[in-house]
Amino acid sequence: MTAVPASTGGAAPYGARHVAIIMDGNGRWAKKRFMPRAFGHKRGVDTVRDIARAARDMGLEALTLYAFSSENWKRPADEIADLMGLLRAFIRNDLAELVSNNTRLKIIGDYQVLAPDIVDLIEDAMARTAGNTGTTLAIALNYGSQQEIARAAAKAAAKGEITPEAIEAELDTACLPPLDLLIRTSGEIRLSNFLLWQAAYAEMWFTEVLWPDFTAAHLREALEQFGARERRFGGR
Ligand code: IPE
Ligand code: IPE
Ligand code: MG
């Protein structure tokens, strides 16, 4: 993996370099409209596109989006198939824009076990955007933070030392700046196995807004509130 970038020269809006979002509430959004859950997921992808553009326009260094957890395999097969279909379509349709606007795509999580054609699409997309120097869009796929930490600890042990620094260097997020702000939509107040290590000193922002209704204005509101907070990191 590449080293942590010092700064890509982004504007660091309100002092934030790295924002992560637990994109939740697609199913409830669809249910309110008497529509199938797949409709909510489809609108959720539109929001991903909008928020990725907003992050780039604001000059964020990194945006990490929780798209599919290691526990989401518990869902019915047809819903999993819908989500994988949307993922395929997203990478196929949006790659050109990512390349042309200098966005670097990164996947965190154990994506290698996904369908072979998706793995190929992902690896092609990462290779084609690897040299981009703008915002990094990190998408968490088959991601579970406990699994990530266990993998990282095993790698650190194999190299001889298990220290916080050694584990951190082996996390999937090692090539991203430190996490500043963690957002969750849909009113749920929990982490659902997302970025447990990285969130140690991140600020948290929870909103009742369902993910398909989340806009750039909500992201800006979260960043504004982040900018007004005092981060102490244990000091005084
Ligand atoms: C988030 O929406 C998308 C994924 C977890 C893939 P949900 O599908 O969890 O929507 P709700 O929570 O049922 O409303
Ligand atoms: C977390 O949402 C996972 C993603 C957003 C991808 P879930 O909807 O799966 O979380 P729980 O089950 O409500 O905790
Ligand atoms: Mg949910």
Compounds present? 3-methylbut-3-enyl trihydrogen diphosphate, magnesium ion
Q: Write down the Rg.
A: 17 Å
Helix proportion? 40-55%
**Strand count:** 6
Highest-level CATH class: Alpha Beta
Residue fraction in strands = 5-15%
Q: Output mean pLDDT.
A: 95
Largest sheet: 6 strands, parallel
Low-confidence stretches: 1-9
Q: Write out the CATH superfamily name.
A: Decaprenyl diphosphate synthase-like
How would you sum up the global shape?
globular
Helix and strand run: EHHEHEHEHHEEH
What structural category do the secondary elements indicate? Answer: alpha/beta
CATH topology label: Undecaprenyl pyrophosphate synthetase
Function: Catalyzes the condensation of isopentenyl diphosphate (IPP) with allylic pyrophosphates generating different type of terpenoids.
GO molecular function: ditrans,polycis-undecaprenyl-diphosphate synthase [(2E,6E)-farnesyl-diphosphate specific] activity
Keywords: Magnesium, Metal-binding, Transferase
InterPro entries: UPP_synth-like, UPP_synth-like_CS, UPP_synth-like_sf
What does this structure look like?
- The chain has 236 residues and is of the alpha/beta class.
- The chain has one domain (15-227): 3-Layer(aba) Sandwich (Undecaprenyl pyrophosphate synthetase).
- 43% of the residues lie in helices and 14% in strands.
- It has helices at 26-32, 37-58, 77-100, 116-129, 145-158, 164-170, 216-228; strands at residues 18-22, 62-69, 104-108, 136-143, 181-184, 203-206.
- A 6-stranded parallel β-sheet has the order 3-4-2-1-5-6, with helices on both faces.
- Helix 4 (116-129) links the parallel strand 3 and strand 4 (136-143).
- Helix 2 (37-58) runs parallel beside helix 3, helix 3 (77-100) runs parallel beside helix 4 (116-129) and helix 5 (145-158) crosses helix 6 (164-170).
- It starts with 17 loop residues before the first strand and ends in an 8-residue tail after the last helix.
- Residues 1-9 have low confidence and may be disordered.
- One 3-methylbut-3-enyl trihydrogen diphosphate (IPE) binds next to strand 2.
- The active site is at 24, 72 (proton acceptor).
- Belongs to the UPP synthase family.
- Pfam families: Prenyltransf.
- Keywords: Magnesium, Metal-binding, Transferase.
- GO terms for molecular function: ditrans,polycis-undecaprenyl-diphosphate synthase [(2E,6E)-farnesyl-diphosphate specific] activity.
